[in-house]
Batch of 4 targets.
Target 1
Amino acid sequence: MHNDFDSLAALIARLDGQGRVVDANSAMESALGLSRRKLQGLTFAQFLQDSETLDLALTKGQAGAEFSMFRFDSTVHGVAGSDAELRVHVHLTRIDPDGEWLLELWPQSDQARTLQDSRVQELAETHRMLLRNLAHEIKNPLGGIRGAAQLLSMDMQDPELLEYTQVIMHEADRLQSLLDRLLEPHRHPQIVETVNIHEVCEHVRSLVLLEFPTGLQIEQDYDISLPDVRGDRNQLVQALLNIVQNAALVLRPKMVHNEARIELRTRVARQVLIGTKLHKLALELHVTDNGPGIDPAIRERIFHPLVTGRDDGTGLGLSLAQTFIQRHDGMIECDSVPGRTTFVITIPLP
């Protein structure tokens, strides 16, 4: 089977007109616990709980050219050589006139996650484009406002009026800083190099501990066997820093009692689905804190720009972090309950 199929999350097999396996991809091999060589020649219906549906589809397909695609739900049994079962969506498509078929099995949980990941990525891209355009529209008039206030302040003699111009300039600078953060991902090209993720973690750990020197512990649980990743070191540092800083900020009440804890944990993950693509190996970086948890009212929107659970937050940190990780073909996910919040950064490994 063409190598392109090996990178897909779907379980894929090529069947002849009698439903016998001609070839299969890596995902199908892993699910059934059989190599494609051992699968060749086996009747695939034996792996389906309701094999009659597949047999009926093949029979109808052979009988008339108008029947060239079938879709139905089924259950695969004997998964990975065990008694486990897997609910799947079945797509059966005739791919040549001689009766050869392409069989796609989509695990129902994976399909739901694929759709969710796709929606997240599309929504994030829409937000980025909207905010980028908005930031450019605001940037020039804002510079004019600040310049005018600065010129006024040079001629002001009344201290009270001078204070007003200082307020205008201060607020213009604050908004300028906000716009700069919105535009940051688009200002610099991505510089891809070999990056040691643990060096990134230690750098971020040092920065945050300098900012919060008392009452906070950042613990390390690293898998030192992890290979280096290919990526932009500065973007990876900024993404992780945004997440760890956010965790530290919500832990400030616990720092008073020396109870604030953040853990950085790295692991290798295998057969990881990110969007619609299956990766054989991926890095998982877990950032876990013992804070109050994320407000359920915003939990589904925390990666959206300008959404924040803190009164002093801008709502840009997590949005920018997700942007940087998506530029590395990865994703950030979050699981939060009171007393424990975990962000998981997943990045494919070469």
Target 2
Amino acid sequence: MNNHELQKRREAAVARGVGHATQRYAVKAENAEIWDADGNCLIDFAGGIGVLNTGHRHPKIMAAVEKQQQAFIHSCFQVMPYEPYIALAEKLNALAPIKGECKSVFLTTGAEAVENAVKIARAHTGRPGVIAFSGGFHGRTMMGMALTGKVVPYKLGFGPFPADVYHARFPHPYHGVSVEQALSDLEHLFKTEIDPRRLAAFILEPVQGEGGFTVTPPEFMRKLREIADAHGALIIADEVQSGFARTGKFFAMEHYDVQADLITVAKSIGGGFPLSGVIGKAEIMDAPLPGGLGGTYGGNPVACAAALAVIDVIENESLLKRSQELGERFRNAMKDLQQHARLGVGEIRGLGGMVAFEVIKPGSSNTPDPDRTRSLVLAAAEKGLLLLSCGVYANTIRVLVPLTISDDLFTTALSRLQRALEQVADKN
């Protein structure tokens, strides 16, 4: 079957609401390369939307999975528990940038992790309110959509959403929202929408994923911690996309001088296997009664075995350092291209290997150009580079390349990106 034939079958059998970045169909992958059904090899800068920090089919992860599969693949932790779940909790409790004793719970998807973090925060505080931020993405469940700060395509036509969820603007000076303005929004919310005594938690991404790889300013994170402490509320750091070496730290919260109370994890935690979790202060995590947390597939033993191998790979293959190196190389390359106004390269931002750039209208200072962005993604795929766009204005190109990519292949990818930018510029 080729790409065209598979696309026809997909149109007949799969719901329209599932979108695609490309109409190329994967048939094989290895490390940072992926082959489509027509035999084309693409360098993978998407990483399964941040799932493959350790690359496709890393040998150590595959070996760990095979070993666990030979023992058993499922029992449900709530029915008959098992050691891999406990071992992974011990590892993450020790690694999490949270002072004191920590505990963890494991689930299957990032949205589940977010839902359970909210449940835990409400159980601990006895309060219902949650404040999220514009541009944030927290999943496709009803609570996840309620928290998400972007309407199209995630929330369009799916309401009404759960109550007691409020939004403030996320600070992004490049698009006209200063830290002071974002903090003013919070004060306004407390005066007009929610009594701070009813606030259970703030939830935010240290680096927004779908929102455009916009980094939370340190001064904003610091002030948020002060506000939360003043009102007896918690901070939930959504690290579903930013965790597991992507920013050059194991957790993106390690870049800040304040700490979250709860951290959600998913995506690259499982090296390609479905797994998510919530890590937090023990006294907070223990607020729900026995039976209040869990899920049939939560903390599946095969996925837990994969996650333990992921941690081993990150630590023993120096992927934190590698993330920083790749991010720096990408920034430098984009700064060079930014000098050519016709290419439409806007703000370059991110932490470590979690980097992105905006595609803007040539000649403007920061006018988003989503049409040019779509053309760039298609042009790059034609040249053998798989890209992902994101952002509130759908004009940001993000980098989620496996951190295990070779230097030579990364250089080739940058060359293909430049040629794609030039091709799009020539057509406009």
Target 3
Amino acid sequence: MSKTNASLMKRREAAVPRGVGQIHPIFAESAKNATVTDVEGREFIDFAGGIAVLNTGHLHPKIVAAVQEQLTKLTHTCFQVLAYEPYVELCEKVAAKVPGDFAKKTLLVTTGSEAVENAVKIARAATGRAGVIAFTGGYHGRTMMTLGLTGKVVPYSAGMGLMPGGIFRAQYPCALHGVSTDDAIASIERIFKNDAEPRDIAAIIIEPVQGEGGFYVAPKDFMLRLRALCDQHGILLIADEVQTGAGRTGTFFAMEQMGVAADLTTFAKSIAGGFPVAGVCGKAEYMDAIAPGGLGGTYAGSPIACAAALAVIDVFEQENLLERCKVVGERLVSGLKAIQTKHKNIGEVRALGAMIAMELCEGGDVHKPNAALTGQIVAKAREKGLILLSCGTYGNVLRVLVPLTAEDALLDRGLAIIAECFDELA
């Protein structure tokens, strides 16, 4: 009996806990660049990229070759037992790309949540303080500490009780929803007045462009003032670049466009083209605050993932993917704005590089989020062969994270499907 999506979904429901969500009832069999083929042989255009993991596309031949070569050497020793050069080389190359004119060191781990957890550990050790300020709409992971930092309860921490203490929430600036830079800075000052003294705050963590929160871009003037505020009070600034990093926004790290450098930067997702590696890169003096044995993990910085990540960095340089990112972003934004002119339900199209979102609302009123239409568009697009994702605090944002290596013709096909969906549903 041949496999079907329906039969596999039935097996999944019996074997996998319901807390592991699944956006599309599809089982992938194979993939190439910006397309995925399911177990029934149907091909889909991939505008999701494994949630911002495949900036270099599915199975890029240079990344596959690097992994295959590493497989002939070794797959694991645990870096803390027997070291290997790819780990050190990746740390060096990431440090060279992370913004900041200061000596840096890099820690490798396995997931984005781990990276954020370790950034907080480092900040606490470096400052001797415990508190952390995060932002409304922020997403930083699903582990206990990162759930506390994540600014959305349902579905991430629903039913789990209160998350770790010592975390305070400031407003993320968003002109579309009436939160100015002044408002956001004032919300931090209110924390200092009402909840915790600055000398109790180890770090402020922020996504330069919010991921799950809706792809809102932090204004430069806000970042400048945030950096000054951190410097004034001896607070470390953590840039969570798990989703924005590895070239998604048109620079290798989004903070390059923000006018300031963070003290610590987290990275993961697309850095290794589909292989699990993540990390923290920051000022050497802060990174060295924890004694030997306080950082690391059994699989942290695996040789296979390091080989993949080094190949990703090479591909970005050899294929000029940062420039390609800008071209992809401009082409998609232009197409989506053309759709917007016909449909009042699209409140805003926004982007930084190829990190692109459409916010859907009722009749053009941005204060009336239209999650229902967003879900319908995602489902209808799937029927037509396009994989899309939604996000946002109210579930009313469509996001595009297509591989930067996608051909123009494929981008145009995706845009045409989105246009058809809006014509039929909105």
Target 4
Amino acid sequence: MPYRLETITREAHLAFVAGRSSVSHMQVPSWGDVKPDWRAESLGWFDGDGRLVGAGLVLLRPLPRLRRHLAYLPEGPVIDWFAPDLDAWLAPMLAHLRGRGAFSVKMGPPVVTRRWSADTVKDAIADPGTRRLGEVPATFEDPRAAELADRLRRAGWQRTEPGGEDGFAAGQPRYVFQVPFAGRSLDDVRRGLNQQWRRNVKKAEKAGVEVVRGGHDDLPAFHALYLETAERDRFLPRPLPYFQRMWTALTAEHPDRMRLYLARHQGEVLSAATMLTVGEHVWYSYGASTGRRREVQPSNAVQWRMMADAHGQGAGIYDFRGITDTLEEDNHLLGLLRFKAGTGGEAVEYLGEWDYPLNKVLHKALGLYLSRR
């Protein structure tokens, strides 16, 4: 069945999102306001009866001095990915974006391919013969995902393979860590924490660490810790105005779309983190901490408070976002994986990001430019 695709209003887009249990925070209209260097557009798919049956936020980035754009749908669009007539969904999108001057389209199907339990991840880390998570037999594997990947390749889509030794893709992470909440009480979730996590949460409580919700005025305190974290963990930090814009845009759309939590001890903020919510899916988005007084375990305290609040608001998934798939001991990101795995959740692999070159020359030129950056 052919689908009609057209631009939809923010209101129509939000109404569609409200009817879904889980949609990426990068697929709501306000995310376009977070990215001022991109032009955002809400796309809607309509069936033969005129019903809105799919939606996506596309970001269009212009090439310097050219009237051509890179079109990007991060962790989207939200369509029926396992539909037998998948081309009927994607072909109108490609045609529409070609008409918008796109030379290449990048998308991230929100489709889970494999899951590994926390115990499986722990055993894999301990095994010196295992170098990558992808080599480890999965606890769960969806055969439909492999079929979908084959269909995309046959249709001309190209998967963006994770680059670099840490396994992170150039766009959104292919591997994440999630704690399922659905059907579990908060006590169940707490019992799922490993012994070290439970001990650290108790240490923080006994030491008098106070975790509070912050607001826009607390973002500079968060950012100061974030810069310290970036230097320690060797990543390029975002500037403070990015987080201020993010707060303003997301909370204007929904007051609880973004939250800020701060862990204080003896009057000093030692750790802070941001939390994002869309429907029943909650993400730990950005975290920051100082190296001072780590013995009072402020980071565990912040995470446990956010998990408890997320559970209290009816979340079905608490998502720790990206993890490395490299399990070698000298990988500087392995400690972060251990920290997340201690929550007793599961490592999750998504289908990854896919490119469709509408103009092969410009698409190849962009790839060469990005590889040299």
